[in-house]
């Protein structure tokens, strides 16, 4: 498809609400992300991070509110959105008997100009595992493969839900480098994170979610300054009354 005008926002969400039974997971969330921004979504367990990014990616329908990705409706224009949006899912379940290279090859067929397999595997550090079946990969390797698959079609907007959760320090640094290379390509990234170190290092802006609401949206330095705290950890506590420390 044609490249969208650079002035079109990468993501616009307006007054999103989502309930599961008696639980309000997302409660009147509005957000706007410009093309090329790397935005972190932070919050304690259950704050609504996954539900919010799933609504943005069109994986769930909001009870009310609307989403546009590069001006497109993820439900009505699903096919076009798939060509510009890459999504790494929490707990992706993939065909267990296929190898890493076969799965990457399969995903590449979905796109007109896919990234080369070798480049994708190098990006996530799975070159040596290319002939290993999915079912034989460790949890961290499966997670990294799901990131490679999200990037297979050269998306303009990427949603990453489990970038580094549970990864060892070396794999974590590799995933950070992968996000930095996306930034160099002016790809927009929406990144669910559980650590301050990660958002301080990678993100232009942080969306702080608490109980399904956006309680702050600012640069990491801006969050610290506006909350009167000394560190981003302290800013988080000041803004939510909760500590992120317990999460990892
Ligand atoms: N499919 C579902 N059915 C019922 N309740 C759900 C479902 N998915 C999420 N919830 C509830 O919605 C709320 C928000 O969940 P969500 O997964 O969006 O939070 P999160 O911030 O991503 O949490 P975590 O850090 O644990 O991944 C929680 O109270 C959760 O229990």
From TrEMBL:
First-listed, main subcellular location of the protein, grouped into a coarse class: membrane
PROSITE patterns linked to this entry: ABC_TRANSPORTER_1, ABC_TRANSPORTER_2
Recorded GO CC terms: plasma membrane
PANTHER family per UniProt: ABC TRANSPORTER ATP-BINDING PROTEIN
SUPFAM superfamilies on file: P-loop containing nucleoside triphosphate hydrolases (SSF52540)
Name of the protein in question: ABC transporter domain-containing protein
A GO molecular function held by the record: ATP binding
SMART domains: AAA
Gene3D superfamilies reported for this sequence: P-loop containing nucleotide triphosphate hydrolases
GO biological process, one term: response to antibiotic
Compartment(s) of residence: Cell membrane
Pfam family, one: ABC_tran
Membrane topology field: Peripheral membrane protein
Domain ABC transporter, first and last residues per copy: 11-236
Species whose genome carries this gene: Promicromonospora citrea
Keywords: Antibiotic resistance, ATP-binding, Nucleotide-binding, Transport
InterPro entries assigned: AAA+_ATPase, ABC_transporter-like_ATP-bd, ABC_transporter-like_CS, ABC_transporter_ATP-binding, P-loop_NTPase
């Amino acid at each position: 498809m044609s490249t969208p005008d650079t002035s079109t926002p990468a993501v616009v969400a307006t007054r999103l609400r989502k309930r599961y039974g008696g639980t309000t997971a997302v409660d009147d969330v509005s957000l706007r992300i410009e093309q090329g921004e790397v935005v972190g979504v932070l919050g304690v367990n259950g704050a609504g991070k996954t539900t919010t990014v799933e609504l943005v990616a069109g994986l769930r329908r909001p009870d009310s509110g609307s989403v546009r990705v590069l001006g497109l409706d993820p439900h009505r224009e699903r096919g076009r959105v798939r060509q510009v949006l890459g999504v790494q899912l929490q707990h992706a379940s993939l065909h267990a008997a296929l190898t890493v290279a076969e799965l990457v090859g399969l995903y590449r067929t979905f796109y007109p100009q896919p990234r080369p397999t070798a480049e994708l595997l190098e990006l996530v550090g799975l070159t040596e595992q290319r002939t290993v079946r999915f079912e034989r990969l460790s949890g961290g390797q499966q997670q990294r493969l799901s990131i490679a698959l999200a990037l297979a079609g050269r998306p303009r907007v990427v949603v990453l839900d489990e970038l580094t959760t549970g990864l060892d320090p070396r794999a974590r640094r590799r995933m950070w480098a992968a996000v930095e290379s996306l930034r160099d390509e002016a790809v927009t990234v929406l990144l669910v994170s559980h650590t301050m170190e990660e958002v301080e290092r990678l993100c232009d802006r942080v969306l702080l979610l608490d109980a399904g609401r956006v309680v702050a949206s600012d640069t990491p330095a801006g969050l610290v300054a506006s909350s009167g705290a000394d560190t981003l950890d302290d800013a988080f506590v000041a803004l939510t009354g909760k500590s992120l420390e317990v999460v990892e």
